[in-house]
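Reviewers asked in the last cycle whether our approach scales beyond single polypeptides. To address this, we selected a multi-component target totalling 904 residues and predicted its structure end to end. The input consisted of the following lines:
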Amino acid sequence: MTHPTIDRKPVHWAAKMHAQEFHDGKLSRREFLTRATALGVSSAAAYGMIGLAMPTPASAQAASGGTLRVQMGVRPLKDPRTYDWSEMGNQSRGTLEYLVEYNNDGSIRGMLLDSWEINDDATQYTLNIRPGITWNNGDPFTAEDVARNIAGWCDKSMEGNSMVGRFSTIVDDATGQALDGSIEVVDDLTVRLNLPTSDISLIAGMTDYPAAIVHSSYQTDDFTQNVGTGPYLLETLEVGVKCILVRNPDHAWWGNEVYGEPKVDRIEYIDFGTDPSAWMAALESDEVDMLHETVGEFIDVLDDLGYVKSEVVTMASVVVRPNQLAEVDGMKPYADKRVRKALQMAVDNAVCLELGYGDRGKPAENHHVGYIHPEYAELPPQVVDPAAAKALMEEAGMMDFEHELMSIDDDWRKNTTDAVAAQLRDAGFKVKRTVLPGSTFWNDWTKYPFSSTNWNHRPLGVQIHALAYKSGEAWNEFGWENPEFDALLADALKLADADKRREVMAKMEALIQEEGVTIQPYWRSLYRHMREGVENADQHIAFEHHHYKWGVLS
Amino acid sequence: MGLFILRRSGVMILTALCLTFIVFFLTNLFPNLEKLAKTQGNFRMSDEAVISWLSKEGYMQPLPVKYGQWLGVLPGWTLQGDDGVTGRCIKGAVTADEAEQAKRFCGILQGDWGYSTVFKDEVSGIISTRLGLTGKLMFWVLVLMVPSALLVGVLAGMREGSVTDRALSTFSIITTATPEYVSGVVFIAVFASSAVGLKWFKGTATSAMESANFENFFLPVLTIALYGMGYIARMTRASMTEVMTAQYIRTARLKGVKFSNIVMKHALRNALIAPFTVIMLQFPWLLNGVVIVETLFNYKGFGWVLVQAASNNDIELLLAVSVVSVIVVLVTQLISDIGYVYLNPRIRIS
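The resulting structure, written as structure tokens, was:
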């Protein structure tokens, strides 16, 4: 790459500013890369702007061909917009690709999009589609396809459509559809998004797993028949048992020239349930070559057994939260701020990290924005004071209330929730622990009065807040509705400059802490183990499987 | 005899009807339907949305009507919606003309077992695949369990109180007193994991679903077989010791018949009557009792389907599981009753 931007336009002013910030030590390398590439600077140029050489990917030795067997829960598929599991994205990613791809170094690179430009106040996005892409039924991939998908993302009437949250800026509240004129097809290969207000997070929103690009013939009766742009086909989908992807021999994949030909012929996802010891047994028995994720004590065990470990530090987390709208015995116990604050004050996050996740991560600050997010603002440390917590709970008159704390039956989420429960009991509160099996836990996850939920990494702090903390959002499991916060969030989403955004973010963080919305104990590192000979299949920061990079030595 | 089989079949159908009605009633309790609506539709549905989803899918009809439709004695529901006609016997929304063409009845009497909401697949297909897999497991369990149990039981029972008897009885009691979830874990730890390092077998039987071999299939088979083996061996031993004290055996001994001949020719057939019933009783237990072992070794058979269906309130799958279970239990009982007549001429079926 000889030109600094992927679209051969001048470098965005903010990117240059961020480079200066990097040199001043205000930004980390990862933060800089996320911001600069989101502004349309190519990865190589972004590295160049801060005086570094782009790391070359480990040279692949694996020959073409072979089968890679991966342990992963196999879930029923549905419309991608309603996906609520990264596994679903992985099952369909071989066929249904994404516009852009988020990588472990924090950079975003184009997939179906060749490049994009954002104007200075982030109200206009120009999306340049990669030329020469075809669907696997032979149809050309055009701007119309992109426009249709984006319009679909903005469809509020679609039940469970989580893309609405990511694209809310261009959604018309009155009609529940995209605003008139907001999605403009300029020519066959260019789409322009005209935003009524600034929003900086649209490109980052396109990296998320519900943003899969589907063909106009997409249907949900038989998922193996769907048309996509990817190099693989979904051959078998047996929910709870297995899911098999095979190379599509009749389709000329666009990426062959751009990112290299995919190596593996066949990818088999095999479901080994939710018990991590079964995953380990699967790896040890040579039933699989790689795990989707290694958790808890099994990380050390598999290290000792000599398997190859891949680790990535993320802003993935867990929240142990009360739901303010939930009714228990005819009252709403968590509508009272004092109760929530008391719960929060009684819990030491460092203890949760130690007991729940074996100290593999960093303690967090109960506001769900962390040091990797560009707009993270450091607040004064939280006070852990069980005595004060007890006093607060007494003041609220809720000392006799028995809190039922629910969690899924697994390793780290259960342990973390146990650690929270133990600390609450130490503070003198009555706590009943309920552990639900994985097959039933998710049926009602946003509705439980008091429970724990894992949250994936997202590139920007405002994205998480827009998805889960904004009033009335599908994934707002806190039942928290705060107009002041919503207004601050709307402001933050207009600020392309992370330093300005940080000032607003400081208020948002403080508000979430102050309101006692959740206990968010730590940021976790993610791990994956594989046997020797599996190549370029590192754990991804958002659990994505980039099949075309994988290789396997038999 | 014909009348007896006929009567038994009648009882079987009646039992199946009662049982499925109970399952139907329980799975159609409103909280369960609400859970179903929220898993299938959207987890944040309001109460009104839940009701509208349930009525749209035909779940809000009176219970006997729904049961009749499932059986296939009442015509399936149809509903005129915005985007066409939907119905029990119709896939998706179709036009009114197409709806006219569709079958009116579609219950199990018409061979339509329904659609699984968890697996997004036809129930009949799921049941036959998973039953086949459990059948394979059961077959190998029986091949291992029955001969070894009879051998142990006969050896122990032929000389009551001897060292052989004591040793084999101890062995039987230990195996039958150890539940599968204990022995299975111990076997995996000892024979399959790096903890002990033997690694003779595989700790999971997932690949055995497609190609079973000694390495990946022996541990689950052994785990189930050992548990049942102790039980059958104890029964055989009791029956054998009783026969060995019978007067005709004493007479044979006094006449100087060789001990091996006494056991093989005179005692064995009489001693096998009681174990026969016990072995037949193992079938229903194997069918559902393998739930633990199937989960432990991640072998996706009938027990696994039962767990998945029950925990997700998958109504039609759960009903099919109960029908199959009733049939297996009653058919094996029928076989055991008839077999009894042949083994023991003193018993007649009138």
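The CA atoms of residues 68 and 267 of chain A lie 5 Å apart. We regard this as preliminary and will revisit it once experimental data from Aim 1 are available.
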